[in-house]
Amino acid sequence: MKGDDGKHKISRRAALKYMGIGAAAIPASFYLNSCGKKIKTDQIVPDLTNIPTDKMTYRTLSKAGDRISLLGFGTMRYPTVERETPEGVRRFIDEEKAEQLIDYAMAHGINYYDTAWMYHQGESETFTGKILKKYPRNSFYVSTKLPGSVKSREDAIATYHKQMEKLQVDYFDYYHLHSLSSDSMYERIYKEWGMLDFLLNEKKEGRIRNLGWSFHGDQQLFNKVLAEPVEWDFVMIQMNYLDWKYGYVPAEYMYNKLVERNIPVMIMEPLLGSRLAKVSRAVLEMMQEESPNSTPAQWAFRFAGSHPNVMVVLSGMTLMEHLQENIKTFSPLVQINDKQKDMLLTAADIIRSIKTIPCTDCKYCVPCPYGVDIPGVLLYYNKATWDSNLPNLDGPRDAEFKRSSRAFLTDYNRTIPELEQANHCINCGECEITCPQNIKIPTELLNIDNLVQQLKTT
């Protein structure tokens, strides 16, 4: 993305024009004429024909010389299936569908697989190891992470060895200090308990080939860990066109700091938990003016992958069509230019103006000890906000308000079982500690429940 002295920048007038369109729900078959060109503004159906098997984009940025597919397979969002257990209904990995996804990914050039101790309540590492065991060890790279939930040095070391057993490997290609989010957690696990020295010795002994960290903390912690007298092999950050300027720590800041130190970057949440896969009418119009057939997800992935110091862009792909669309985007990746980057940053301004809760459905907050479906409640509220279906308590109590209130409550009860709704939160705070997006979850649940209770009385 070479500079062009701003000649391609979107003007303020143009940005205001798009923002003035608003973020209303997109009606089917809605068309808008602009500059003599007919633009379809419903969501775009990706072309899933002719998925290449031999055109994947690879990057060789690691000191080990690994040739890694720019699209990496994140295993946090495997397809699931419900089953009865003695503790009630639980969701388990749908192994048949998940195996089909991995087999398809391998056949189409994806060679990087990212997992973690807590994904799918501990099942992800075991399942990932079982499926990858079918393939030659030198045909894939596997990554996992030391969880911040370990209780002692002994527990941390036991967890590390158990991960090797679950993944059925005798070395880790990439190993993370997972989700560094607070200075106290970092100091306790990696300094007081000596786990940083332990992991560095494991690397020296060859059981870890590349050592780095994934990050969800503040700028002070980022700079502190970056300044450690350690040759970090990679760092994973949350990066997308919304977080580029507006992240808790702006992704632009972190990316540029890592470039300065020549540390390869891994990308998580390129779609912000699918928030950037379906965009408002205003944003979609901008995207279609630039490229009528590109989906919002393709734009988001192209933004992340176009930065040259990015080693891998991770995507948690639940459905086959997600996997196919993403493979096509990266086979090969068409990098965005400066004009397109400016368009996406203007889109970020529009998206930011819509006040949603920054939940990415990572599920680090569950299970809730009181049974609340935390991500389900937050995402339901976000969808109602995004689709402009949120009843306005400050407006007139007219027929339209009553209609929208009934619709909101009906869909809420259909989407979230009664025993898992926000009113069961007792503000214990356990979820807030684990949230990588720093959401004040009990406060948000209380606000949503207050809305629900008020709507019930109208």
From TrEMBL:
InterPro entries: 4Fe4S_Fe-S-bd, 4Fe4S_Fe_S_CS, AKR2_Oxidoreductase, NAD(P)_OxRdtase_dom_sf, NADP_OxRdtase_dom. It holds the Pfam family Aldo_ket_red. The keyword Transferase does not apply. It comes from the Bacteria. The keyword Glycosyltransferase does not apply. Keywords: Iron, Iron-sulfur, Metal-binding. Residues 415-444 form the 4Fe-4S ferredoxin-type domain. One of its GO terms (molecular function) is iron-sulfur cluster binding. This is Aldo/keto reductase. It comes from Fermentimonas caenicola.
